[in-house]
Amino acid sequence: MPKPREISLHPIFCNADMRVGEIRQFCRLQDEGQSLMRAAMTQLNLSARAYHRTRSVKLARTIADLAGSEEIQSVHLAEALHASQSPKVEVELAIVIWGIFIF
Predict the structure, then answer these.
(1) What is the pLDDT of residue 61?
(2) What's the CA gap between 100 and 19, in Å, rounded?
(3) Which residues, in sequence order, are bridge partners of residue 72?
(4) pTM
(5) 40 burial class (0-12, 13-18, 19+ CB within 10 angstroms)?
(6) CB of 64 within 8 A of CB of 27?
(7) Which of 46, 34, 47 is nearest to 78 (CA)?
């Protein structure tokens, strides 16, 4: 059965392709995740508008997908926030993600 993102009006081939509407639809955060994101936005001086521009939420969705989770859990968001702040971690995570799909 296709996932909701696969039957979207705007085909999403990867989570990075998501627009604001799709982020709102597919990247809903639980209460704990919302608190974590608010704290990160405060600490990183991000505006509410920047929330949809950050890669962290899209990356958290990808991490949740790889973990087989329908919902983004706070641990997925924490890992994504960490990766977004560390270029080396982000590159290593990208290699792991692409390695899963290539091989």
Answers:
(1) 92
(2) 25
(3) 29
(4) 0.70
(5) buried
(6) no
(7) 34
